[in-house]
Design a protein that fits this description.
This protein is an alpha+beta fold. Helix content is 43%, strand content 22%. One of its GO terms (molecular function) is ATP binding.
């Protein structure tokens, strides 16, 4: 449906046709807030994302239409041309970051639409950045490698959207592979595909429908906490730090910084435990580590919220193998690993109890692991 909507909108606005490109949102099984700490993450691309039709227009201006917002923006390609529309800054930022790397691009017309739930922690912004980075690289034959495409998206967030994110979201959106999760070492950028087909289990997201805004945010403050502790330890990142070394400097740092670092150090170990457990088919251990991650995100990192904690508690009561909040925090989804025979009862119970408590149902998104950025023939 998205493809036909985008095609129709493009032809209506620009009286021509272009080339279709798409990129994916992502889930992250485990490894939260570790990417900007140089640690490991374990994401996968999903079967919802952003689709855009694009055509060079022979000028030095971009004309863009956001189908879902029914919003139009037009802007140039110089630094002083930054658009006022927040959604358009993602496209503008990608263009500028390509130019900073020596890529020669011109103006273009585009219409885009997405089916990544906004604010659900599935990284609709990274899907948008990756779609345009991949498309412009292809259309203008720039020869930029996939890692640099991911970095272009990350730099767009940093320099044009005010979020000091790590590399995970853009990496997953660019490198995603159907049927596989990916373990990425965010320090060395080495990665490995792990086939993911949990026979007897389903992976499902429950969306609290609580929206969060990360700009200027608590997210950036947590990153600063981690950077302060790493500096005290004489490291660039928290990656590789131990609890023994952290405890040795406990009296020299704030309690808040201590707890932030304690979560990150524990999370690095949990990612590796989950990778090992999946290779053994040991889903009980996978689930235990997911619950432990949520506890750390809620109590030590303090990025959860009442609605997310409530859904994780319901999951535990229903015998769900593993559950945790997913994403930057302050709203969004829980990710749940559920045995097939418990699935229907869990979903029904979660909907009922959540509605009784908060006055609306959570949205349910079954997870299908899919491909990342690509051209649609």
């Amino acid at each position: 449906m998205t493809q036909s909507n985008v095609r129709a909108a493009f032809e209506r606005h620009f009286n021509t046709h272009g080339t279709l490109y798409a990129s994916a949102g992502r889930i992250n099984l485990i490894g939260e807030h570790t990417d900007y700490n140089g640690g490991f993450v374990f994401p996968g691309a999903v079967d919802c994302g952003i689709t855009a039709m694009i055509r060079p227009n022979g000028t030095d201006r971009v004309r863009a239409y956001a189908v879902d917002l029914d919003s139009y923006a037009e802007f140039g390609l110089r630094e002083e041309d930054k658009p006022s529309e927040s959604w358009a800054r993602y496209i503008f930022g990608v263009c500028r970051e390509i130019q900073k790397r020596g890529g020669r691009i011109g103006g273009f017309d585009t219409a885009f639409s997405g089916d990544v739930p906004l604010g659900a922690g599935m990284s609709s912004s990274a899907a948008l950045e990756s779609t345009f980075a991949f498309a412009l690289n292809d259309l203008y034959a720039l020869g930029i490698d996939k890692f640099e495409l991911a970095r272009i998206g990350q730099s767009t967030e940093h320099n044009y959207c005010g979020v000091k994110c790590g590399i995970m979201d853009q990496f997953a959106s660019v490198f995603g592979k159907k049927g596989c999760l990916m373990r990425l070492d965010c320090r060395s950028m080495e990665f490995e595909y792990f086939p993911f087909d949990p026979v007897g289990y389903k992976l499902v997201l429950l969306d609290t429908v609580v929206k969060h805004e990360l700009v200027g945010s608590p997210y950036n403050r947590r990153r600063e906490s981690c950077e302060r502790v790493a500096k005290m330890l004489g490291q660039e990142f928290l990656r590789g730090a131990t609890m023994e070394r952290l405890d040795a400097i406990r009296d020299e740092i704030s309690d808040e910084d201590y707890r932030r670092a304690r979560f990150v150090i524990g999370e690095e170990r949990r990612v590796l435990d989950v990778c090992d457990a999946l290779q053994r088919g040991d889903y009980a251990t996978v689930g235990e580590r997911m619950y432990a991650t949520h506890e750390g995100l809620s109590k030590d990192y303090e990025v959860s919220c009442e609605e997310l904690d409530f859904l994780v508690d319901v999951a535990r009561e229903c015998g769900v193998t593993g559950a945790r909040m997913m994403g930057g925090g302050f709203g969004g989804c829980t990710i749940n690993l559920v045995k097939d025979d418990l699935f229907a009862d869990f979903i029904a119970t979660a909907k009922r109890k959540f509605t009784e408590r908060f006055g609306h149902e959570p949205k349910v998104y079954p997870v299908v692991i899919s491909d990342g950025a690509h051209k649609i023939d």
